Amino acid sequence: DLMSGGLHRAWKAYTVMVANLHEGRQVLDIAGGTGDLALAFAKKVGRTGRVVHTDINEAMLRTGRNRLIDAGVVLPTLVCDAEKLPFPDAHFDVVSVAFGLRNMTHKDVALREMCRVLKPGGKLLVLEFSKVAKPLSKVYDWYSFNVLPQVGKLIAGDAESYRYLAESIRMHPGQEELKALMKQVGFGHVDYHNMTGGVVALHVGIKC
Question: What whole-number distance in Å separates Cα of residue 23 and Cα of residue 91?
Fold first, then answer.
């Protein structure tokens, strides 16, 4: 909330809207962490649907599971590597990954796995930091590399993690690069929606 000025809530709400989920749908939330999207998806798919909440980080996943339980929602929760998803082919209607693809070593392998587990016509939602519009780039860089680590140090006692955050954002493929990669691994149609001047982009891939 502090780092994004609360905007992450709007970014995630938009992602849920684009998912356009209905009762009974099967959803896989990858790098689901604190469970924000999983909780929102669960409300959409109802009792006849299923949302599988996953993350490679067990501690983060446990935190998310506890938050979901506190909200009165119990979901299948699984520690798993996005590059080796333990699910059968053509199993899910929607797969989502929010602020997690950036940290995956082999993004092409992970995206191919996400495509594999989607049903034909299924939808992948990738919400991630991206390349900002050029007029904002200098100010954004200054904030990311100077302000962000200092705020992290003051609030969380950890400047390095926030310095890594800024560096990892710069290393992540931009909007067009990620779109091309998603097409390369098997998505028939890919589009993206920039938010907050390109600070964040939501890529939507359809498996044909």
Answer: 16
Q: What is the pTM of this model?
A: 0.94
Task: Return d(Cα 94, Cα 20) in angstroms, integer.
Answer: 9
Gap between the Cα atoms of 131 and 103, Å rounded: 16
The closest of 24, 57, 60 to 42, measured between CA atoms, is: 24
Query: Do you know the residue count of the chain?
Result: 208
In DSSP terms, 205 is beta-bridged to 124, 190
As a whole number of angstroms, the distance between CA 140 and CA 199 comes to 9
118 burial class (0-12, 13-18, 19+ CB within 10 angstroms)?
buried
Q: What is the pLDDT of residues 98-139, one digit of tens each?
A: 999 999 999 999 999 999 999 999 999 999 999 999 888 899
Q: For residue 123, what are the β-bridge partners?
A: 94, 206
> Strands 118-129 and 200-206: what pairing?
antiparallel
